[in-house]
Design goal:
The structure holds 2 protein chains of 2 kinds. In chain A, 75% of the residues lie in helices and 0% in strands. Chain A has 7 helices and no strands. In chain A, α1 packs across α4. Chain B is an all-alpha fold. Chain B folds into 2 domains: 113 residues, no CATH class; 60 residues, no CATH class. Helix content of chain B is 82%, strand content 0%. In chain B, α2 packs across α5 and α4 crosses α5. The radius of gyration of chain B is 20 Å and the shape is globular. Classes of the chains: A mainly alpha, B mainly alpha. Chains A and B meet through α1, α2, α3, α4 and α5 of A and α1, α2, α4, α5 and α6 of B.
Chain lengths: 177, 191
């Protein structure tokens, strides 16, 4: 990996802010991470970002660990630790406090309104993630076909997603991408 | 704390876990989670260990989806803290993120040494193409209920956020600062 020039402070500040904005979870934050890391800060190229995405997909654990890889790419192991804690810490603390009052508000009308309002926003964000990654990754008709087929199968069938990632890997190895 | 009595009801079936059990079980969940941890979390907590009823699991996960941050990490924190307070939340957090962190950094370090290998690059391209397809499948699954309900407001909001962030590439904080208050107002007004 090439060394970027991100300071630990800017990594911490950026991911802590993103942590509290990440409505819709890890997948919804991909466009913003891409915008900052590739377009705004130029920590890495488009190609490198996509490779980090692929590594975070094939490794076990939550997909949010792409932030560990972004931190690692830009500032080594300290960067990886800082980025991971900044991304997961603030939202976890918030969730810890809110969950203690959650059950009391089970029937509250504000809870229903807020939830109804947030759901389509988070879907729009995840949709934008899928689109941005697709235009970056699918540069040939073959990769476009793999993406489309995976989308349809993933939507219709219920089996372990790992098999489809493995299928992509095999097609890649066979030189079909 | 408040959540505790709620959880105790479910524990007729399974003994309450100790802190070390909590840590090890979340290590196990996260390390099984290839391509998404949620199915493994549910299987372990609800079906195998019976530490939560299906209803408790759904309710806790809905909370974690509504709040910002990685949903499944939030879920670990909520579960741990209901059993053992702040310490339990921290133990679940570390068990959940620690082992996969070590693995993902190790994989990235190995990859850095071989990334000019053409075959490996094609493998990564294939995985990425399939990975983004899974993303699209998740979007379709999430949007399906809104399509069934023919909710014009919700579908407009999905489209608006998609165009703003995906096509126009506006900064997400800006888009959320506008869309969240606006849509809460609209939903409240038209419910």
């Amino acid at each position: 990996m090439t060394d970027g020039n991100a300071s630990l402070f800017s990594l911490a500040a950026y991911f802590a802010l993103l942590s509290l904005l990440a409505v819709g979870g890890a997948n919804a934050t991909i466009p913003e991470m891409h915008r900052i890391a590739v377009d705004a800060q130029r920590w890495m190229t488009d190609r490198q970002f996509v490779e980090l995405f692929a590594i975070s997909q094939i490794a076990p654990g939550p997909n949010i660990l792409i932030v560990s890889l972004i931190g690692f790419q830009t500032a080594g192991l300290p960067g990886a630790l800082v980025a991971t804690l900044a991304m997961c810490g603030p939202s976890s603390l918030l969730c810890y406090y809110v969950s203690r009052y959650w059950d009391r508000a089970r029937q509250a009308s504000w809870r229903v309104v807020v939830m109804t309002a947030l759901v389509p926003i988070s879907i729009g964000l995840v949709g934008a993630s899928a689109y941005l990654l697709a235009v970056t990754i699918d540069r040939t008709w073959q990769t476009g076909l793999i993406t489309a087929a995976t989308a349809v199968i993933g939507f219709r069938a219920r089996f372990n997603p790992l098999w489809m990632l493995l299928g992509g890997a095999v097609l890649g190895l066979a030189g079909l991408v | 704390m408040h959540g505790k009595s709620h959880l105790d009801e479910s524990q007729a079936a399974g003994a309450p876990p100790s802190l070390s059990q909590l840590f090890l079980v979340f290590c196990g969940i996260t390390l099984s989670g290839f391509g998404g941890v949620l199915p493994f979390a549910r299987r372990t907590l609800v079906e195998q260990r019976r530490w939560m009823t299906p209803e408790e699991f759904n309710d806790a996960f809905a909370l974690c989806q509504m709040l910002p941050g990685p949903n499944i990490v939030n879920m670990a924190v909520v579960f741990g803290s209901r059993l053992h307070g702040l310490t339990g939340g921290l133990v679940a957090f570390l068990g959940f993120l620690g082992p996969p962190f070590v693995i993902v950094i190790a994989v990235a370090s190995l990859y850095a040494n071989v990334n000019d290998n053409a075959a490996l690059q094609r493998v990564m391209t294939g995985i990425s193409a399939a990975g983004v397809g899974l993303f699209a499948a998740t979007v379709m699954k999430m949007a399906a209920p809104l399509v069934r309900q023919r909710s014009a407001l919700a579908l407009s909001v999905v489209a608006g956020v998609f165009v703003a962030v995906g096509l126009l590439r506006l900064p997400m904080p800006l888009v959320l600062a506008v869309m969240i208050p606006l849509n809460i107002f609209l939903v409240w007004k038209w419910r």
